[in-house]
């Protein structure tokens, strides 16, 4: 029979009447003291981290090719979330293997991972709804600080409840040890209902009159992201609500949703908002005004050259939230060289005949001389 380490005794027998979905949370891998649950969370995160590492050099080249800080912010959050998830799993596995009693350390690690994931989750939505047309470091810092402050308050409350008011539904049968209970079933249920309502409102905004007043994102992947999180939080509300009333069937629901959130959320952000950017041909996106952006990087707005010809120019954040059509050259009100520069910005610089990045000149054929009268 599987065994589990205990603070008071070297081994404690796992009760045979525990529900399978509860058993998987604290059962060990055969012949080891490593929890199966940690392995389930670790493997997908480790695979995604290896994927990011394999494409890291290419990603850095892409990020250097654009002056927009939003791509760097999103990519940084994705990498940080993945690394934190892997670190938490490995630390928990090492403590289990060494028979170290570290329940408080494990709680802190879980809360820390939840803090970064929730910050990213809210940043994506807030930037898309309120700051999608500001593409500067100051606006992104403001969004990240605001969402981090809210996430910190949430995570602090979750950690405090987990330490001082542990939920009996997440205790191991006969052991004094506990698994992470996400702040208890009441806290989890109430917060999941709130998040569900928020995502539901955001999802239905395009079908309300507010679409005429708000610059809503047009990219379908944004609404797919919102819909998936709405369904995920709704499922967690149902599962934690069932457990709150001592219905053990709810633990299967929260197991599945927790596994999905901690393993697939970060790849979802990458696929929905970064994959298109990293898949386009290597180029300096909108390099025709890159120098001007660098000069105004810390300003709240980006000042573009030739604004009379580029009045409808889109920022790089629009590429994330408005879709590939945001870079359609037909949206320009100007013509001539403006369209040539814009078309060049979406191609490899070396492929533009007659244009040199070093000289920053365009060869224009000389006008034909009128025929002389004989």
TrEMBL record:
The lineage of its organism: Eukaryota, Metazoa, Ecdysozoa, Arthropoda, Hexapoda. It is found in: Membrane. InterPro entries: TPRA1/CAND2/CAND8. This is Transmembrane protein adipocyte-associated 1 homolog. GO terms for molecular function: G protein-coupled receptor activity. Coiled coil: none annotated. Belongs to the UPF0359 family. The chain crosses the membrane at residues 36-57, 69-95, 107-130, 142-165, 185-210, 222-245, 260-281. Keywords: Membrane, Transmembrane, Transmembrane helix. It is a multi-pass membrane protein. One of its GO terms (cellular component) is plasma membrane. Its main location: membrane. Pfam families: Tmemb_40 (PF10160). The keyword Membrane applies. It comes from Bemisia tabaci (Sweetpotato whitefly). The keyword Transcription regulation does not apply. It comes from the Eukaryota.
């Amino acid at each position: 029979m599987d065994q589990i380490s205990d603070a008071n005794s070297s081994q404690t027998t796992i009760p045979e009447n525990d529900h399978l979905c509860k058993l998987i949370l604290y059962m060990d891998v055969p012949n080891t003291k490593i929890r199966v649950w940690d392995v389930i969370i670790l493997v997908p995160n480790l695979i995604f981290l290896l994927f990011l590492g394999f494409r890291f050099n290419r990603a850095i080249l892409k990020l250097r090719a654009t002056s927009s800080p939003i791509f760097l912010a999103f990519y940084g959050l994705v990498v940080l979330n993945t690394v934190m998830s892997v670190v938490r799993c490995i630390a928990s596995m090492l403590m289990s293997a060494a028979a170290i009693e570290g329940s408080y350390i494990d709680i802190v690690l879980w809360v820390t991972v939840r803090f970064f994931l929730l910050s990213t989750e809210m940043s994506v939505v807030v930037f898309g709804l309120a700051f999608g047309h500001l593409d500067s470091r100051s606006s992104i810092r403001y969004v990240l600080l605001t969402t981090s402050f809210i996430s910190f308050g949430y995570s602090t409350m979750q950690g405090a409840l987990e330490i001082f008011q542990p939920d009996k539904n997440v205790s191991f049968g006969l052991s004094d040890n506990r698994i992470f209970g996400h702040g208890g079933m009441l806290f989890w249920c109430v917060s999941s209902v709130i998040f569900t309502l928020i995502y539901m409102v955001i999802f239905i905004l395009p079908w309300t009159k507010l679409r005429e007043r708000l610059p809503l994102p047009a990219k379908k992947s944004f609404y797919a992201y919102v819909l998936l999180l709405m369904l995920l939080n709704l499922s967690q509300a149902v599962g934690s609500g069932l457990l709150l009333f001592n219905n053990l069937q709810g633990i299967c629901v929260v197991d599945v949703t927790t596994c999905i959130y901690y393993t697939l959320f970060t790849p979802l952000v990458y696929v929905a908002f970064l994959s298109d950017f990293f898949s386009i041909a290597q180029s300096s996106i909108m390099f025709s005004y890159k120098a001007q952006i660098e000069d105004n990087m810390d300003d709240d707005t980006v000042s573009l050259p030739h604004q009379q010809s580029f009045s409808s120019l889109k920022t790089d954040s629009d590429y994330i939230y408005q879709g590939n059509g945001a870079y359609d050259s037909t949206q320009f009100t100007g013509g001539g060289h403006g369209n040539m520069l814009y078309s060049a910005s979406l191609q490899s610089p070396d492929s533009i005949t007659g244009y040199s990045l070093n000289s920053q000149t365009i060869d224009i054929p000389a006008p034909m001389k009128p025929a002389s009268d004989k």
